[in-house]
């Protein structure tokens, strides 16, 4: 596409979809900046970030500053014409934002100014948004507040989870960036300031938000559950232990039972009463056990759970 020198900054799988598209378009990626590797698993072995793995596949130099505010000199030394960021995970200092001639451009997974912050995909579902999308913006000091030069939207389906919506938005973001990038290099992109009065926020999921409160309207509980799938996964307490919910659906049939009561099982789900409907748990995981289907759980200890209430 262009011989302009691009540094890409990102960390998770979502960023990989954007970087892969830039590589496929023939962009001159002179370096990738990622969060440091993290220890994972029981053995606490260092695991390279997804974006680092992709960069190394294409032999692109990788920088992993612990604190980019203090360790920015190697980034500046690459003399970027543009920096593109996507879910990097650290606040980029002003000296880096000011370095490239074509500025720092961010790919954000929401329709800004809605859902600024680190968990826009999760929160789009949890908040019951009807649509979401991606925004391409110029980075400024304030988080996700820069002027926007391109947007693309999509509808959120009733069965979307954070996992399925993530993949749709990753593809949409790659397409949107690829379309606007030539305009950015030609100084033909038009930037529109965000309306601060319309800003909403999508803060990272807290540990408290992982606990599911079944004593709420059916749609709210359902949105909360699928907004946490596949990660970090919502849970509730039963018999003093956590039960995680990996696959769910909703029916609007009525029940007179108290909210959070396990009503019983059908062919492929455990049924839980909520206000105005029933949550069907298709895959679950009891604390200390492996993930299992509702049917397998029923055939084991599940029958003894019928009539019990979560979080009691």
UniProtKB/TrEMBL annotation:
Domain (Formyl transferase N-terminal) ranges: 5-181
Keywords recorded for this protein, A-Z: Protein biosynthesis, Transferase
EC number: 2.1.2.9
Highest rank taxon of the organism: Bacteria
SUPFAM superfamilies (alphabetical): FMT C-terminal domain-like (SSF50486), Formyltransferase (SSF53328)
InterPro entries found in the cross-reference section: Fmt, Formyl_trans_C, Formyl_trans_C_sf, Formyl_transf_N, Formyl_transf_N_sf, Formyl_transferase-like_C_sf, Met-tRNA-FMT_C, Met-tRNA-FMT_N
Positions bound to (6S)-5,6,7,8-tetrahydrofolate: 110-113
Gene3D superfamilies found in the cross-reference section: Formyl transferase, C-terminal domain, Formyl transferase, N-terminal domain
Catalytically driven reaction(s): L-methionyl-tRNA(fMet) + (6R)-10-formyltetrahydrofolate = N-formyl-L-methionyl-tRNA(fMet) + (6S)-5,6,7,8-tetrahydrofolate + H(+)
UniProt keyword Transferase, yes or no: yes
Keyword Protein biosynthesis: yes
Domain Formyl transferase C-terminal, residue spans: 204-301
A GO molecular-function descriptor: methionyl-tRNA formyltransferase activity
Cellular component per GO, a single term: cytosol
NCBIfam families: fmt (TIGR00460)
Listed PANTHER family: METHIONYL-TRNA FORMYLTRANSFERASE, METHIONYL-TRNA FORMYLTRANSFERASE, MITOCHONDRIAL
Family membership noted in the UniProt record: Belongs to the Fmt family.
Function per UniProt: Attaches a formyl group to the free amino group of methionyl-tRNA(fMet). The formyl group appears to play a dual role in the initiator identity of N-formylmethionyl-tRNA by promoting its recognition by IF2 and preventing the misappropriation of this tRNA by the elongation apparatus.
Protein name per UniProt: Methionyl-tRNA formyltransferase
UniProt source species: Dielma fastidiosa
Lineage: Bacteria, Bacillati, Bacillota, Erysipelotrichia, Erysipelotrichales
Gene: fmt
């Amino acid at each position: 596409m262009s011989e302009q020198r691009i540094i890409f900054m990102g960390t998770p799988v979502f960023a990989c979809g954007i970087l892969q598209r830039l590589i496929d378009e023939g962009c001159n990626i002179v370096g990738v900046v990622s969060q440091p590797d993290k220890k994972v698993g029981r053995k606490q072995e260092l695991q390279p970030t997804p974006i680092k793995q992709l960069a190394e596949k294409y032999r692109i130099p990788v920088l992993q500053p612990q604190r980019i505010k203090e360790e920015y000199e190697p980034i500046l030394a690459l003399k970027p014409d543009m920096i593109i960021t996507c879910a990097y995970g650290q606040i980029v200092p002003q000296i880096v934002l000011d370095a490239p001639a074509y500025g720092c451009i961010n790919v954000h997974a929401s329709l800004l100014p809605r859902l600024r912050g680190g968990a826009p995909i999760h929160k789009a579902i949890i908040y019951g948004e009807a649509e979401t999308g991606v925004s391409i913006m110029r980075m400024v000091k304030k988080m996700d507040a820069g002027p926007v030069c391109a947007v693309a939207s999509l509808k959120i389906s009733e069965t979307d989870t954070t996992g399925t919506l993530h993949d749709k938005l990753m593809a949409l973001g790659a397409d949107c960036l690829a379309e606007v990038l030539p305009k950015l290099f030609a100084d033909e992109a038009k930037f529109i300031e965000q309306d601060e009065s319309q800003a909403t926020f999508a803060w990272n999921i807290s540990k408290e938000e992982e606990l599911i409160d079944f004593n709420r309207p059916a749609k709210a509980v359902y949105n909360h559950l699928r907004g946490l799938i596949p990660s970090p996964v919502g849970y509730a307490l039963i018999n003093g232990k956590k039960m995680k919910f990996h696959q769910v659906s909703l029916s609007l049939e009525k029940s007179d039972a108290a909210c959070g009561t396990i009503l019983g099982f059908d062919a492929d789900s455990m049924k839980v009463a909520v206000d105005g409907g029933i949550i069907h748990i298709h895959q679950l995981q009891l604390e200390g056990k492996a993930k299992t289907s509702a049917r397998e759980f029923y055939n084991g200890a599940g029958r003894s759970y019928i009539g019990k209430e979560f979080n009691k």
